[in-house]
Amino acid sequence: MSDFEPKVVAFVCNWCTYAGADLTGTSRIKYASNVRIIRFPCTGRIDFMLLLKAFANGADGIIVSGCHPNDCHYTSGNFHAKRRWIMFKELMDFMGIDMNRITFSWVSAAEGAKWADVVNTTVTRIRELGPYVSYKELVNKSVEEEVKNE
Amino acid sequence: MNSLITRAKELLENKSVQVVIGYEAGPTSVARPAFITDPAKAGTLIYDERCVQNLAVYLTKPEVKHLGKMAIVATLPVMRSIMMLISEQQIFADSIVVLGISADGSLLDIADVKVMQGYIEKSDLGNPEKYKELLAELNKLSPEERFAFWQKELSKCIKCYACRQACPMCYCTRCTVEVNQPQWIPVQSNTHGNMEWHILRAMHLAGRCISCGECGRACPVGIPCHLLTMHLVDQVHNYFNVYAGTSEKMSSVLSTFEPNDKESFII
Ligand code: SF4
Ligand code: SF4
Ligand code: SF4
Ligand code: FES
């Protein structure tokens, strides 16, 4: 397990967190390279189904991040997103899906250091949790089920 | 239920409505939905403990709507569904006659939406007792046990979508599962895809489910999928202090927000 490198997918909004992550780079702050950033127009566009697809495609952890409340480029996308995250989190918990593997955060365009911190703490946590074996098993089992049904 | 029959007959005779949606005895012990258009046939209407289906689902079906103005036999969950459909602008308040049925099975006098709202507000709006126990049991399990429970249940799903068809709030003419560019939910049945389907369905019903339990009742393989949406009913009440289907003006929880919505997990 010691050579386990977590795969973390980050869904971020274009206007704050993506710019923040850019700042992390231009400020030459070093952070874990386990993260794959996917840029969205706004957190309001980050459909919960995308998070499920990330797990299905082998992610061990997920970061979802956007502008702080009141700073959304489209005024209210993040407020809507917040309500959806609350419901999504409660539903996932109820179904036994590991919410310790998802980090939700607000990172502004000026918070390059916070972005590095969000990524590092997430990667450290996922490293401790190990690969998301139970989800991967579920996906593999489902592929077998389909072959059997054909 | 003579008062129900008399009222239905009256409505059809004086042409206030063209169809009465209610229940009738079927060939088995199960009561089935009835669509009465002829006043002479109003006598077949029944109301007893066998009448459990949520009839509000028919209010948005084109094949029923084309019959004309509708009257509907409505217990509390049906009235709440009607409220939801009005608030989501799927039906017009004054185009439906509500034949309200009280908890003890007698005919209520629901003259208009205001009266109906008053009746709903006086009622117990949480999840029904029998489901509360199941929910509490599941909530007591560890996350691993819950994951195993839902995997076992959802492995049985044959993707017939009866749960969707039976739900009054699943009225989309093109459901996401029928969208294939992109294909969000695989067409075939497999445990993982079935789980994705149920997460999608529950999320679409968050803040809209009125705890009728119809989705679970409709499932031919006995998956308790109503517990997923009912869990969110509890959570919506917990976080936002509302129950769905209580006012004709309400917007559903996930289509609005309050700037100071509380959460404790966003860093
Ligand atoms: S599952 Fe969602 S998309 Fe499908 S009918 Fe229900 S609400 Fe509409
Ligand atoms: S219990 Fe099921 S059928 Fe009834 S409103 Fe909720 S999701 Fe729809
Ligand atoms: S009714 Fe049951 S078997 Fe059919 S799609 Fe829903 S959960 Fe699956
Ligand atoms: S643009 Fe960043 S959250 Fe809306």
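^ FE2/S2 (inorganic) cluster complex. DSSP finds five helices and four strands in chain A. Chain A has one domain: 8-149.
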